Amino acid sequence: MGKPVLFETKEGIAIITLNRPEKRNAINRELLIHLYNYFDEVSNNDKIRVAIITGNGKSFCAGLDLSVIKTENLFDPRGDGKDLPDIFENCKKPIIGAVNGHAITGGFEIALNCDFLIASERASFADTHAKVGIHPGWGMTQLLQQAVGQRMAGQLSFTCQFMSARKALQCGLVNEVVSHEELISRAKKISTEICSVNQEMLGVVKDLIKYKNQAKLQEAFAHERKGFRKFVRQFIPTI
User: pTM for the full model?
Assistant: First the structure.
């Protein structure tokens, strides 16, 4: 049995692969510890500019491993007080979800915490919290409605039915759907484009986009304008 998460870097791109294919990449404590450590590496390594997260095998991630939910600490796996949304929030570099197969419940939440998603034609998405009787905690009830709208999010979460990759594209959940064989190469191509831009301003733009999550439109707009005036004063101090 290999590591539960694989990690490789090349030319500024990190690829993080969930690697419990025999368990459909279900989440246990060891997987989370490796995942969090690799995200810390992405955050702290100046040579890495963008991360791709994907799954090995037929699934992206089937959610929590129910066989260990009562015996393993899945919400503070490293004992440092950091949970999955904290790890994603602390990463200031773009995170692309390359969804290769089923993304179910906790696995769906991993996808939703990415900056955007590219999906294989074999991908599908389901929120089964209500079906299995587990309280959402990694952003499902907020991030899903942000992505597809409240009514569609309600239908998905109330029925616990799967959404296909094509339907996910129509709803705005994913940015692109590609053939299964092209998934990683397409994610790498987008990552290469991201690597080519001004990295300092990229970080600023990501922060500004995320700022809207905690502010109303006018406040977020004012925040952007304030930053722009500060930027311009570097060149025209009187403004």
Answer: 0.96
